[in-house]
Amino acid sequence: MNTMKLALATATLVAAALTPVAEAADWPTKPVMIYVLYSDGGSIDAMARPIAAKLSQMWGQPVLVDNKPGANGILAIQTLMKAPADGHTLLYHITGVVQNPWLYKSARYDPNKDLAPLVQIGGQAMGLAVPAKSDFKTVDQLVAAGRATKDGQTFGSVGNGHTGHVWSELLAAENGFKATHVAYKGSGPLTIDLISGRLDWAFLSTAEAVVRASDQSVRILAVSGPERVKQLAGVPTLKEAGFKGFEMVGWHGIFAPAGTPAPVRKKIEDDLRKVLADPEIVKLADTQVITITGLGQDDFARVVRTDYERWGSLMRKFDIKND
Description:
Helices cover 45% and strands 20% of the residues. By secondary structure, it is α/β, with parallel strands linked by helices. The chain has two domains: 32-123 and 249-317, Bordetella uptake gene, domain 1 (D-Maltodextrin-Binding Protein, domain 2, 3-Layer(aba) Sandwich), CATH 3.40.190.150; 126-232, Periplasmic binding protein-like II (D-Maltodextrin-Binding Protein, domain 2, 3-Layer(aba) Sandwich), CATH 3.40.190.
C-alpha cells in the first residue's frame, strides 16, 4: 500500500512539473482576440491587423482584432480585465495605459497590477511643429517670443492630458512663459488650425510631422525622445536644442490579463518578437514612424512602472485631470 501511495505521489509531482510545459505546448486551443483601443482604420489598427495575421499563421488559430474605442482606451482595458487569464485575450495599447489612471477616476485599474506587459512593439516620438509661415526657426526663438508676448501664445493638442498637451505645458512652464491650451477632437482639426496659423505651435505625432514637413505645410523645430527620428534626420532632439525633460517617448505594446500563466506569456512574447523581426512588419512600422524595440516582458514591465510614475509626476505638476 505504501509503495502504491509513493507511486501515486510521484506521478502527481511529475504531472505537476510537466503542466506548465503542456500549457505552452497546447496553447492556443481556440481563436485569440486582440482588443485595440481605437476605431478601425487608424494607424494603430494598421499595425495591429498585420501583426495578428502573422500570429495566426504561426499559431494555426484565427487571431482576431476587435476595436474597442472609448475613454482614451479605458474601455479596451476594462474589457481585457474581465476576460479569462488564459492568453486567448490580449490588448494592443499605447502610453495611455499609464496616463489614464492619473487623468480619469473612472479608469479603476492599476497598470502595474491588473495587466501583464508582454512585448513593447516600439516607440514613437513627437515633433514640435509651427506653421510654415511662422518666424520661428528654432525652439530658442519660440521660447524668446513666448517670454516677450504679453498675452501669451496658443498651442494645440488632440485632447486634455494627451502627451502633446503635457509636453507643451512643460515647455512653457520650464522656460518662463505662458501659453493657452486649445484641445481638439483628433489630429485633423488640430493640424488644419496649425497650418493656417490659428495656433502658434503644437506637438504632432512623428507620423503626422513627417507628412507635414514633407509637404512643407509646417516646420518641425525639434523632436522629443532620446535620439533623432530617422525620417526627420535634420531635426534635433529637444535635448540637443538645449531643452531637457522630453526624453520619454510614446510606445505601442501588447498586454495580457494579470494572472496569465507564465509559460503562455513566454510563448506569446517569443512569437511576437519573431513577428516584429519580419521584414513586412519592420517596413510597416517604418511607414508609421514607429521605432521597433521588441522589449520582452521584464524590460517592458520596467518601462510601464517607470513611465507610470513619470507621467503621474507631470500630471500632478500641471494639475491635469479629466474628471
